[in-house]
Amino acid sequence: MRTPRAPRETRSPGLEPLAVLPVFVTLDGKRAVLAGANGGAAWKVKLLAAAGAHVDVFATEPTEEMRGTPAEAVAGRVVLHERDWSPADLEGAAFAIAAFEDEGECACFVGAARAAGAIVNAIDRPHLCDVSFGAIVNRSPLVVGISTEGAAPVFGQTVRARIEAMLPSGFKAWVAAARDWRAEVSARYHAFAERRAFWERFTDRAFAEPERAPVRADLDALIAASDTAPAGGNVALVGAGPGDAELLTLKALRALRSADVILYDDLVAPEILDYARREARTMLVGKTGHGPSCRQDDINALMVSLARSGKRVVRLKSGDPLVFGRAGEEIDACRDAGIPVTVVPGVTAAQGAAAALGVSLTHRDAARRLQYVTGHDRRGALPDDLNWAALADPTVTTVVYMPKRTLRALLARAVAEGLPAATPALVVFNATRPDQAVVRAEAGDLANRVEAAGLEGPAIVMVGNALGREAQAEAILAEALPAAGRAGL
């Protein structure tokens, strides 16, 4: 009998150590000073001006590129002073940049700028900087900054290019609309949960039509949808997939990012919880095979209680919640309590394992039927009511969930019922995860091979002729290649 345990709240370990703190500085209408004229100076001036600053540049011998910056400023203003700087020039400066080749002159400027209360950057001298510049993706007012702390600038530029390709240029119009509409939305929706729900709908619409500039009709439609949306909490049963976080569906990601509370099982990969918003509560309601487990009634009661208090609850399950995930019991509990409940399907363990191995679960010559069965009943024993005639058919691909304790008895019974002992079979441990491991054998010998391997972790069994086609193809290829060599090919 399983040892009962109670649901318990868990906490994220928080951020990993940060090499630098990513912050954004507002310079619109403020004064900035750059002194010197080394190689990166002109570009820094353009950045300051693009942020709306009034930039005074002091350089005794400005480059031609620097001479052109006042005319090229897309915002703010740039004034070039062809003379040396003085401490008085730094009065009232919010930001200052040292662009000198000489270390001593650079340090002198940095000291004067700090004394004047300015934030300081020194080009190519990180030890003198208060802040540093990184690679920038500009969809202003959406701005993405990327830093490698100077360790790998080319790597940072490559990351920037990748993000540039992922962010449609039209997002700038949607973010600008959000800025323009925020006061009206805040005045209409006083509760934080209502405002968040509105902006989630806004974001969904922006991602659906990123290249179209939003108009007033969009705001009206979003307000109408928000005003008519059901009030109160709800529950979403979400499939986390077998382990690889990249197998999450987009709908699962949206559910995680909007959840107030996430109830998750032991088998959910920890990195999947990283996709949840920082403010979400996470609660372990672990159900492990034959190990300490929370009672299903306690999980159902917790889901209903949280939803009744107005929370958006995600019940996060490994694989697909509709495949041996007790989804039926949880759906019934929510419906009986009058709680809105939805299901977000996930990649099943069988699909993930087959894809990771590069095998097909069906094949028109070897397997026209696919069946999923559970390896144990409520007592943890081999179920009495399995269809043994179906399990003994080698032309069917059979996938057995939760098989470890009953594997030997299950296969022995299937062989006794007529399954050829030589039928291809395998067990996949930790499917799609970095520590995935596979044990292959004939059905009659698989249990012995698994026990000898001594592997741990969630496991899934596959049996059927379709699984042997990959090994057969490899053997044929191995035989053919030496023959081709002998033929001089």
TrEMBL record:
One of its GO terms (biological process) is siroheme biosynthetic process. The active site is at residues 265, 287. GO terms for molecular function: NAD binding; precorrin-2 dehydrogenase activity; sirohydrochlorin ferrochelatase activity; uroporphyrin-III C-methyltransferase activity. Keywords: Cobalamin biosynthesis, Lyase, Methyltransferase, Multifunctional enzyme, NAD, Oxidoreductase, Porphyrin biosynthesis, S-adenosyl-L-methionine, Transferase. The keyword S-adenosyl-L-methionine applies. CDD domains: SUMT. It catalyses: precorrin-2 + NAD(+) = sirohydrochlorin + NADH + 2 H(+). Residues 173-214 form the Sirohaem synthase dimerisation domain. Pathway: Porphyrin-containing compound metabolism; siroheme biosynthesis; sirohydrochlorin from precorrin-2: step 1/1; Porphyrin-containing compound metabolism; siroheme biosynthesis; precorrin-2 from uroporphyrinogen III: step 1/1. The keyword Translocase does not apply. Residues 235-446 form the Tetrapyrrole methylase domain. InterPro entries: 4pyrrol_Mease (IPR000878), 4pyrrol_Methylase_sf (IPR035996), 4pyrrole_Mease_sub1 (IPR014777), 4pyrrole_Mease_sub2 (IPR014776), CobA/CysG_C (IPR006366), NAD(P)-bd_dom_sf (IPR036291), Siro_Cobalamin_biosynth (IPR050161), Sirohaem_synth (IPR012409). Belongs to the precorrin methyltransferase family. This is Siroheme synthase.
